[in-house]
UniProtKB/TrEMBL annotation, chain B:
Organism: Streptomyces noboritoensis
Residue ranges annotated for the Peptidase M16 N-terminal domain, each copy included: 28-167
Protein name, as recorded: M16 family metallopeptidase
Short name of one Pfam family: Peptidase_M16_C
Peptidase M16 C-terminal domain segment(s): 186-366
Gene3D superfamilies: Metalloenzyme, LuxS/M16 peptidase-like
Domain of life of the organism encoding this protein: Bacteria
Statement: the UniProt record of this protein carries the keyword Acyltransferase: no
InterPro entries xrefs: Metalloenz_LuxS/M16 (IPR011249), Pept_M16_N (IPR011765), Peptidase_M16 (IPR050626), Peptidase_M16_C (IPR007863)
Taxonomic path: Bacteria, Bacillati, Actinomycetota, Actinomycetes, Kitasatosporales
UniProt family annotation: Belongs to the peptidase M16 family.
Keywords of this entry: Hydrolase, Metalloprotease, Protease, Zinc
Coiled-coil features, chain-numbered ranges: none
Length: 462, 450
């Protein structure tokens, strides 16, 4: 081929065909005799079934000085039961072709099972056994504690994880659980033993304070019978509602540099807290945040990546921390990414210029339209797998939202105008109320960052 | 456009079918219908990867992949991204040793747009490629390298392991990200030549999977791709053949600011596409996959000498595959203790092979991974391209899980015996420098020793 030789025949850009309707699935909801709430959703063709268990055992319920006990408990669920040793449990579960993950976050503990539908009854039996009769053997809990202590230096070494920990420490009052690492610190994890894990379990884990979400190709499965034999056999006392503490944060504009001498890049995390999904502004905030930094054609990457080449990508997002029905919850609103060390000052300067321009001029109709088309249009892709649907349904449960929240959200996004989206994103990211954490080489970046005037700059050791 | 295979499900394909077609210009097309969700995946594999790169130009295939998103004759600047995302689609591209892939998943009614976009850049990229996008994407890729490899603890481990496991001059000696020096050295003319050499319809496979009308889809493909000229400038990659085993234990010790000691190793394993490779996959799963594997039980549960211990498999068709051992030590445990335990476990496994229960577990795990991969239209489209490009037959994607389930315990033992041995591995040891600051005895820590 040569540039002057043969060429292809060009055609005009094709128009879209007629859209086939799609809606976020509506789950069936029921309560088992033992008080367990069950959401189910049949997704033909999804041979790998996803089960999400939500346990209302929030991090703020961890006893003082025992941060991390919820995490150790979550991990200990798969370390043996009244019938099986830790090794037997792991082997039996994996022989089903299943994966089981558990983690503790501010709203509670999530246990996620994925398994081919043919082996769902067996795997659900194992999961029920773990929840109903966990062994919490001394030796296994001690091992999990030591393993967790070994993990901590790896997390601190990771620039993104280190930045996230620093931002929480900056934003939230020291007395608030949210100011401290979700999985505990070396000091608190060291104190955890089997007795502490069992006490936490007995206080918060019971079917009446739990929800199971089951999604997949369930057409050939008698799920009621399977549930009766498994999660339905779990017993416990009635649930007591635990009031949720209000979330407050200090978002005075300032910069904290976590010093990493010699780092070739600066990890940046810029954040504050703002409205969660219960707030009417949520759809507009989602839309505006996408326009600011949802993808590489959004405002931030258009400059920082595609014009300047300072970064592989910078994203803006809102991530719910904890929500309650009363509307006292909050979301973390943040901008994150990495920029090369010499361009850290110029990149932050450009970033603030993007925010100021957004506040001064607002979004335009074309970018709002593109954002709506993307956010609404990708839904059928995003929710193709059972795991994606189950994850969103469980998120709704833990955030005290109605089961049709996501389905309604798409209609609300489509109805949100440019003016509302602008107002929401500008109020989400005000230039003078952002806490900036930079994990990078202070010797190289401190002076250029100070010169920007985006807040007082302090340096802490890495 | 002769019809290839008919759409009759093969045994073990889970009811999935695919048809094959070839345009006059050599573009191979694979279609697979599935109307459960109103989405369609477009996937395009170009038969070019980092193994085709020449000395001094490592990273060029990947840098070029970025340039494919910088516009073409009818698509301005970032138009490819804007149009797909504005149509409710998702998209990306990736580069590996053996191929470069580009993919869009679209709502069904926007499928034609994705085909038009892929055809436009396949046929006319050079009319839009300029210095400005070259310079910009060079910086972006260098930042990608920093973010994913250079600024992360152990981030360059994989690069070091492949450099050890595949000798100097071997096409797989370097990884797709390339070196900073080579990224700096690449010129616009290099990029143009790369396109002229490798981006041709007869060097690609296009798959479309999902809620499609095959006849109409094929007509669109013919309309948009059919007039793109064939060209045959492609040179085959350098020969990747190597002896079945390395023949000696290679070793490098890295002193870096990492949080803990680590023992990693690369084992040379059979080529992808063989029964022996599937057997090796099962062996690595029994030994180092999940929470009930032999290495996890030994090092994490019993000895409590490791934070995590596992095996991964990098399947390669044009060179021996690579089994990647990764153990991060616990507390003050020394690497020789870990190494002795690993050797003990591998030797025992090579001797006795997997138990029936271990086979059942490993096969069930790999089966679920396959169901996951084939459970989305995008995953299926990618696998159909993979088998078409690397093995000449996309239908193999639909029966891959059957082949894994067909492997016997004896085959697993045999491949372990032949390959999981000390004289067939490259060992990479990490020693943290922070610990050395307290240990004044060790002053000349920098650099690697072989």
């Amino acid at each position: 081929m040569s540039e002057t030789g043969v060429t292809m025949q060009f055609h005009p850009q094709p128009a879209a065909g007629t859209a086939r309707p799609w809606a976020f699935p509506a789950p069936g909801r029921a309560t088992l005799p033992n008080g367990l709430t069950v959401l189910r959703c049949d997704r033909p063709g999804q041979q790998v079934v996803a089960v999400e268990i939500f346990l209302a055992a929030p991090l703020d319920a961890e006893p003082t000085g025992l941060d991390g006990v919820a995490t150790i408990m979550a991990r200990a669920f798969s370390e043996g039961t009244d019938k099986r040793s830790a090794e037997e449990f792991a082997a039996d579960l994996e022989r089903c072709g299943a994966t089981l993950d558990a983690h503790a976050d501010h709203p509670g503990v999530r246990v996620s099972l994925e398994v081919p539908v043919s082996r769902l009854p067996k795997a659900l039996g194992l999961l029920a056994e773990a929840l109903r009769a966990p062994a919490f053997a001394d030796a296994e809990v001690d091992r999990l504690v030591r393993n967790r202590l070994d993990e901590i230096p790896h997390e601190l070494a990771n620039p993104a994880r280190r930045a996230a920990q620093q931002l929480s420490r900056e934003l939230f009052p020291a007395t608030a659980r949210m100011s401290r690492p979700r999985q505990g610190t070396e000091e608190t994890v060291t104190r955890i033993d089997a007795a502490a894990v069992r006490a936490f379990y007995e206080a918060y884990v019971r079917p009446a304070a739990a929800t199971a979400v089951i999604v997949g190709d369930l057409g050939a499965t008698d799920l009621d019978a399977v549930l009766a034999d498994t999660l339905g056999a779990w017993t416990g006392t009635p649930a007591q509602e635990r009031p949720m503490p209000p979330v407050t944060a200090d978002d005075t504009g300032r910069v904290v540099i976590v010093d990493r001498p010699g780092a070739v890049q600066t990890q940046l995390l810029i954040g504050r807290i703002g409205p969660d999904r219960h707030d009417r502004v949520w759809p507009a905030q989602v839309l505006g945040t996408y326009c600011l930094g949802g993808t590489l054609t959004s405002r931030l990457d258009r400059v920082l990546r595609e014009e300047k080449g300072y970064t592989y990508g910078v994203r803006a997002y809102g991530q719910v921390l904890r929500s309650g029905a009363e509307g006292t919850g909050a979301a973390m609103l943040a901008i994150s990414g990495s920029v090369d060390t010499p361009n850290t000052g110029p990149a932050l300067d450009d970033l603030w210029t993007v925010l100021r321009k957004l506040a001064a001029e607002g979004l335009n109709d074309a970018e709002r339209e593109t954002a709506v088309q993307n956010l609404v249009g990708v839904a059928p892709l995003k929710y193709e797998t059972a795991a994606a649907v189950a994850g969103t349904l469980a998120d709704q449960v833990e955030q005290h939202l109605p089961d049709d929240f996501q389905a309604q959200l798409y209609a609300r996004l489509a109805d949100t105008g440019t003016v509302e989206a602008t107002a929401a994103v500008v109020s989400a990211f005000p230039v003078d109320r952002l806490v900036t954490v930079l994990v990078g080489d202070a010797a190289q970046i401190e002076e250029p960052v100070k010169a920007l005037g985006i807040g007082e700059v302090t340096v802490v050791s890495g | 456009m002769p019809m290839g295979h008919t759409a009759t499900a093969q045994a073990g394909s889970g009811g999935l079918t695919a048809t094959e077609h070839r345009l006059a210009n050599g573009l191979r097309v694979v279609l697979s219908e599935d109307h459960l969700t109103p989405v369609a995946a477009v996937c395009l594999w170009y038969d070019v990867g980092s193994r085709h790169e020449v000395k001094g130009r490592t990273g060029l295939a990947h840098l070029f992949e970025h340039l494919m998103f910088q516009g073409s004759h009818q698509v301005h600047g970032n138009g490819h991204f804007e149009l797909v995302q504005g149509a409710g689609g998702s998209l990306n591209g990736t580069t590996s040793f053996e191929r470069t892939n580009y993919f869009e998943t679209m709502p069904t009614h926007q499928l034609e747009l994705a085909l038009w976009l892929e055809a436009d850049r396949m046929g006319s990229l050079l009319s839009a490629l300029d210095d400005e996008s070259m310079e910009n994407q060079r910086d972006v890729v260098k930042n990608e390298r920093r973010q994913r490899y250079d600024n992360v603890p152990y981030g360059t481990a994989f690069e070091k392991l492949t450099a050890l496991a595949y000798p100097e001059g071997h096409p797989y000696h370097h990884t797709p990200i390339g070196s900073m020096a080579d990224l700096d050295a690449a010129t616009l003319e290099d990029a143009r030549n790369f396109f002229r050499t490798y981006y041709a319809p007869n060097n690609a496979v296009l798959s479309v999977v999902g809620d499609i009308d095959p006849e109409r889809t094929l007509a669109w493909i013919e309309k948009y791709f059919g007039s793109i000229p064939t060209h045959d400038g492609k040179q085959p990659p350098r020969d990747g053949a190597l002896p079945g085993v390395i023949g000696e234990q290679l070793r490098e010790v890295v002193h870096e600011d990492v949080p803990a000691r680590a023992l990693m190793a690369a084992y040379r394993l059979p080529h992808d596409g063989t029964r022996e490779c599937d057997a090796a996959d099962l062996a690595l799963t029994v030994l180092g996959g999940g929470e009930s594997s032999r290495l996890h039980n030994r090092l994490v549960r019993h000895d409590q000498s490791a934070v995590a211990a596992g095996f991964g498999l990098l399947r390669l068709a044009g060179a021996p595959s690579l089994g990647w051992l990764d153990v991060k030590t616990s507390g003050g445990v020394e690497v020789p203790d870990i190494e002795a335990a690993v050797d003990d476990e591998l030797a025992r496994f090579a001797e006795e092979g997997p138990t029936a229960e271990e086979m059942e577990r490993a096969q069930a795990q790999l089966e679920r991974e396959w169901l996951d991969r084939l459970g989305t239209v995008a995953g299926r489209a990618d696998e159909l391209c993979r088998y078409a490009v690397l093995f000449g037959d996309p239908q193999l994607a639909l029966t891959a899980v059957d082949r894994v389930l067909d492997i016997t315990a004896e085959e697993v033992r045999d491949v372990a015996r032949a390959t999981l041995r000390p004289d067939n591995r490259a060992v990479l040891v990490y020693e943290p420098t922070a610990a050395e600051a307290d240990d004044a005895a060790d002053a000349d820590a920098k650099g690697a020793e072989q």
